[in-house]
Amino acid sequence: MQEELNQFERNKVWELVQRPTHQNVIGTKWVFRNKMNEEGYVVRNKARLVAKGYCQEEGIDFDETFAPVARLEAIRMFLAYAGEFEMSMMGELNFFLGLQIKQCQEGIYISQSKYTKELLKEFGIEEGRTVSTPMATNVQIDKDEKGKSVDESKYRGMIGSLLYLTASRPDILHAVCLCARFQSNPKESHMSAVKRIFRYLKGTIQYGLFYPKNENFSLKGYSDSDYAGNIDDRKSTSGSCQFLGDCLVSWFSKKQNCVSLSTAEAEYISAAFCCTQLLWMKQTLADYKCSFENVPIFCDNISAINIAQNPVHHNRTKHIEIRHHFLRDCVSKRKIEISFVPSQDQLANIFTKPLSSETFSSIRARLGIMHIE
């Protein structure tokens, strides 16, 4: 606590003034926290003096809560003067926000094995057999309106925990997102599907993402869809992943907003989502003096590729929402290049549908998800 106060004094955090007569004074409180490493051992005791901002009332103590311009200027000024503040040297980064980081000559490993073990213990799934995939290929999940209901609070807790785990385990993303659709009224069939994900995790606790050290700095994306895969409303699922060199840096799995009338439409919409993400990445990387042209999107549907490459609107594509046609515009301007990839090499398959054990393991390895010692 004294160290915190001394730091405030050295950095001249505040200046004592006369108490204002017509203003409420916001008090302070101490916040104590034990900082732990990935093994659960306390490595540091932290004490922070913070203001009781929650005591303020809108309209009395403040009028606005957010000013975009002021916020941006504050960030720029902070960065400009960041040599001016004291920092603690904690050594090489190895644990941050639940992520375990291991650095070596070959590259960087990121995992959440500690968090996975805690989840298995919390939800009582430490015992029992393991499975090789997070989803069975012979089971289709729907609303199951006639099924027996389960504890909604526990189900949501399990889904929330699994969603956080997808930060380093993209191999479970599709299964988790599919189960997350039934949080409002979960049934026993949904709970069984969630428990299967945990049984898969039990057998792959030490798995995580590997970022190899190399000079390949190309940008590329993979796009796929599961046409009319949702049994309840027949909407398709979009899935994509983006690579920077050989490193998987972004991935998503999402049910499309509208019902597609053909496989080509579903694949085209999915490619448009992938294009959006790649354009954002291009813009972000431009700040680091990295430029990319004709960024490839790999798609396994020739009809969708033809739609993206055809500048003429014809009757077969009139039903597709106009907002998705910006993909065609990006292709014509050579910002994006959409290319064909065989289905067996479509890495985005893992984000749209359940796969056989052999196919799943192959794609998982190619995404850079591997066992970490």
Automatic annotation (TrEMBL):
Domain annotation Reverse transcriptase Ty1/copia-type: ranges: 11-82
TM region(s), chain numbering: none
Domain of life: Eukaryota
Lineage: Eukaryota, Viridiplantae, Streptophyta, Embryophyta, Tracheophyta
Protein name (Swiss-Prot/TrEMBL): Reverse transcriptase Ty1/copia-type domain-containing protein
UniProt source species: Rehmannia glutinosa (Chinese foxglove)
Pfam family, one: RVT_2
